[in-house]
Amino acid sequence: MRKGWGRAVVIAVASVVIVLGLVYAVTVRGGQDKGAQWYAAPPTTPRMPSYSTAAPAPTTRPTLTVDSGCRLGQGPAALDPVPAATTRRVNTAWDRVERWLKAHAPTTAASLRPPATLARIAQAQRETGVPLPAELVAFLLRHDGVSGIGDSFALPPFHHLASTETIASQAKVMCEVLTSSGLDDNVGHWWHGRFLPVAVDGGGDGLFLDQRTGTGRLGDWNHEGSVSFDHRPPTLTELLERTASALETGGPADGGYRPVVTGNRALDWEFPR
After folding, report:
1. In 3D, which of 116, 125, 115 has the Cα closest to residue 78?
2. If 0-12 CB within 10 Å is exposed, 13-18 middle and 19+ buried, where does residue 97 land?
3. In the chain, which residue ranges form alpha helices assigned H by DSSP?
4. Which residue in 70, 62, 21 sits closest to 184, CA to CA?
5. Which of 56, 122, 165, 269 is the most buried (most CB within 10 A)?
6. pLDDT (tens digit, 9 = 90+) per residue, 161-192?
């Protein structure tokens, strides 16, 4: 079974409910009692005077008592230099991917956006509040993400590389939901302000680089669960290299997915059987 049509349906539905899903997911983790503080219905006006001595229900949302790491709008103004070795490795991986796409899936090849400017990358860094690691800067200097979802290039099986605009906007959404949840346990478990979103699946989940220690460890986030580092290589560059190898050999890629070409001459990833 291929994911093409199924993913389109999922993306269409998820785009309507994504923010509500994010808020619901991060609050229910704290238990029904904590979630009830968010969703308790406002008291109705009684028809007769009430003489109850019970304390009124809380009307304010809980607040975090730990540091979320969120520093939106406070990132460094200047980018750190990108080592030549990092640029060379990223570009070599992209050369392999683009060569295959142009030969077999030109529709997907056309979805790769032009390079981002240094000014736009620096702006994204300021907006997220997190220093961008060198490999992410090198990625953005090669391609400023992809155009749309649909037939655009995806790391297997459906993670579409984020543009500078998407990195900043997704980081903002995640931090706003995290801090609004008021649940300390969500910090670092569901999201952290020093996570940088680098790819999205259109359904509320994606890939991020963990900058808590400045290492840029690659991980997955799940808006209904928790973050994970178990099923990914340590770097975004290595994931691109593995993707290039899967394209050149016919797979399998991470998770057992294999590349296929659709009738629209676009890249798709076939679900493992």
Report:
1. 125
2. buried
3. 4-28, 32-39, 84-104, 106-109, 118-128, 134-142, 164-181, 236-249
4. 62
5. 269
6. 999 999 999 999 999 999 999 999 999 999 99
3-state class of 51 per DSSP? Answer: coil
Give the strands of the sheet with 206-210, arranged side by side.
154-155, 159-161, 195-200, 206-210, 217-221
**Beta strands 258-261 and 217-221, pairing class:** unpaired
Q: How far is Cα of residue 227 from the mean position of the Cα atoms in its chain?
A: 11
Tell me the one-letter amino acid at 55. A
Q: What is the pLDDT of residues 63-119, one digit of tens each?
A: 999 999 999 999 999 999 999 999 999 999 999 999 999 999 999 999 999 999 999
Residue labelled with tokens 């309507």: 16
CB 162 within 8 A of CB 2: no
- Six-digit token pair at 27? 């609050």
The two structure tokens encoding residue 13: 């539905």
Angle subtended by helix axes 84-104 and 134-142, to nearest 10: 40
Instruction: Calculate what percentage of the chain has a pLDDT beyond 70.
Output: 78
Do residues 243 and 156 lie in contact, with contact meaning Cβ atoms separated by under 8 Å? yes
Question: Distance between terminal CA atoms of the chain?
Answer: 8
Confirm whether pTM is higher than 0.85: no
Give the integer Cα–Cα distance in Å for 25 and 156.
25
